[in-house]
Amino acid sequence: MRKQKTSQSTPQEPQAQQGEQNTGDTQSVARRLSSRRKRAPKRRRSSPLAGLAVIVGRTVGALSRRLHLGGGTSIVGMVAQRVYPDIIKHLASQLEHGSIIITGTNGKTTTSSFITAILRDGGLRVWHNREGSNLMRGIASLLVMHTNPTGKLRYSGRAISVLEIDEATIPQAVRVVQPRVAVFTNLFRDQLDRYGEVDAVIAHWKKALHTLSADTTLILNADDPALASLGKTFEGKVLYYGIDDLSHDLLRQDTATEQHQTIDARVCPQCGSDYVYNARFYSHMGHYECPQCGYARPQPEVSAGHIELESFDRLRIQVTYAQQQQEIVIPLPGLYNIYNALAAITASLALNMDWEPIVSGIEQSKPVFGRGERIQADGRTIRLLLAKNPTGFNEVLRTLFSENVPRHVLFVLNDNTADGHDISWIWDVDFERAAGLTRTLVVTGTRALDLAIRLNYAGISRQDMLIIPPAPLRASREVTGNRGPQHKKRWREKAKMAELVSDQQELRVYGLKSALDRALQQTPEGETLFIVPTYTGLLEVHHELEQRGLAARYWKGNDA
Q: Which ranges carry the Lipid II isoglutaminyl synthase (glutamine-hydrolyzing) subunit MurT C-terminal domain (predicted)?
């Protein structure tokens, strides 16, 4: 049931401008951006089963932390769901201001961090699953950690939750949470062995949208044709965001950069014809239209006009919305972070936030875990730039070497489950951009050899990179006896790696710790080491920095 509108404004729910009409063709863009009033949570009686799930889950989480078996975050939700499978639905319905979900291939973490900061600056109590996973157990953990043993949310649920959701978890999440706002950032090829091609992901998302209430506001990237098509089938309100500054159009820049862009959405979903682009910013992001049926990029309600690069991690943009123009500074590097900021701005305007908390929330934000994060180490600066798929890696390299300044770089390529076992995508990455621009270069990870070979093909000689294998090399040992084919295959791989690195170093130098030591030693004091890892590589790097006392444990924080 929806609460009646009142004539007074509160910090939690800024008052919409009076006098605007919401009828027919005269409906203003400002009114379209205004939020629906907050919904009163359904009153639920105390649930003994929910209370038991909370007690058991939090107890197990505390034991996990005490025994140093992990952060004790996700396990809370896992156990609580085992005790009471409907715990998320039970608790999410108690949130007075509802929930926001954010998903997409890239940018989920940064966008959700922006939104969290904006809403807090706007006066809301925000619960954000920054500490746990972005799967269902992470959502459960977040809510359980804010729940009394009676099964009721603390503070009577006077909060809004900001939930970063894994792409594959969206169907479950939207069905159970029924969000007030759903933000989709982008869709790129990523972990094909887990997600499949982008068409398969879009098909799952379309089915998920059918389970959403018409009260939900859908926030979509207008420049991503795969995402924008979701708005055509959704019955609720849809708001688009995008970039209008054509000075960053790759089609008007050097052809070498354009040739290395991976295009993951090529054809119109309505008629199957190839898109024609009037502008492309990266990958398939840009201004497009179908010459056959006329389907084209929708006009965004929130857009970035003039974009000015003031420094490596300082972007000034002009934002247009509701026939207004405002300036805002994004304290993060890369064109992709402009999209993240626009997504956060659009979601905040959909919740009727004022411009002041939007500015303070974004401009005072710090880089989140591994997304431009800055760490000091013995007079040197470490910058962590996560790159987990071809498009993300291309944009990191584009940002890193856009000024043609030589950098100190450490690449970490892993092929663990969370990274995706198939790493053939590295051949779609524009490593040619780095040729001649690495002052020092160290390569490590479970697939260090594969990456070294790719870098060699990109024009970086073996003498210009230091390859640190993940484990001790015993390539000189002969294959004898009735060893299986898998053992022989591993031996041959190690033999190749030994041949590649033997002229550079002693074979006893291996592992991420040694790679980090060497990379820091090669970086002079006062300069910056840029570490570009895949996901599990980021976890390993961060853990090593935590062990050295250089970084806080990544799950630390207070979302209350």
A: 386-467
